[in-house]
UniProtKB/TrEMBL annotation:
InterPro entries: Rbsml_bL25/Gln-tRNA_synth_N (IPR020056), Ribosomal_bL25/Gln-tRNA_synth (IPR011035), Ribosomal_bL25_b-dom (IPR020057), Ribosomal_bL25_C (IPR037121), Ribosomal_bL25_long (IPR001021), Ribosomal_L25_dom (IPR029751), Ribosomal_uL5_bac-type (IPR020930). This is Large ribosomal subunit protein bL25. The lineage of its organism: Bacteria, Pseudomonadati, Campylobacterota, Epsilonproteobacteria, Campylobacterales. This is one of the proteins that binds to the 5S RNA in the ribosome where it forms part of the central protuberance. Pfam families: Ribosomal_L25p (PF01386), Ribosomal_TL5_C (PF14693). It comes from Arcobacter ellisii. Keywords: Ribonucleoprotein, Ribosomal protein, RNA-binding, rRNA-binding. Residues 2-87 form the Large ribosomal subunit protein bL25 L25 domain. The gene is rplY.
Length: 178
């Protein structure tokens, strides 16, 4: 379980001090809940996210255990250092928007024809309840040749998921290398 602290002060100086001490600033929110300003040790947060198996995970904030999902994060444009993360409380039974990561399996046959595999949409936004939330969307790319794409309309999503992206949006494709 990830340990965090609740921030008392919201001033710019307090935020800078926390960042200097190695903390990652976080905002935790949910439907019908009051926002919580929190901070996590940056290295522990990154290690925890790399090793988690499910999309939703538990966070301990001064004795309160909350189940959250990473909704958005900000990185420094120069150093790619993680600056801020938005965590949404995953409430059971409430239909909410989630962003599900896309994973590919297999080797596309277009790679042998000097093509490059491009993941156009890294996270697909869907609406569902926490109970029906998949950990990822796995796509088999072995039949993709250069110029081929897998679009949103080609995905076989369960009936419990609603994808609200345009059906013509590409998820994965093989492009010609120059």
């Amino acid at each position: 379980m990830l340990e965090g602290i609740i921030r008392d002060s919201m001033t710019k100086q307090a935020t800078k001090t926390l960042r200097r001490e190695g903390y990652l600033i976080a905002n935790i929110y949910g439907k019908g809940l009051e926002n919580i300003s929190a901070a996590f040790k940056k290295n522990e947060f990154i290690k925890f996210l790399r090793n988690k198996e499910t999309l939703a995970f538990d966070v301990n904030l001064s004795g309160n255990i909350v189940k959250v999902v990473v909704q958005e994060y900000q990185k420094c444009p120069l150093t790619s250092e993680l600056l801020h993360v938005d965590l949404m409380v995953a409430q059971p039974g409430v239909k909410t928007s989630y962003k599900i990561p896309v994973k590919t399996t297999g080797i596309a046959k277009g790679l042998k024809n000097k093509g490059l595999l491009m993941i156009h949409t890294k996270r697909v936004p869907v609406k569902c309840t926490l109970e029906n939330l998949p950990n990822n969307i796995t796509l088999d790319v072995t039949n993709l040749d250069t110029g081929d794409n897998i679009l949103i309309r080609d995905l076989t999503l369960p009936e419990t998921l609603e994808c609200f992206l345009d059906p013509r949006v590409p998820v994965v494709g093989v492009i010609k290398a120059k």
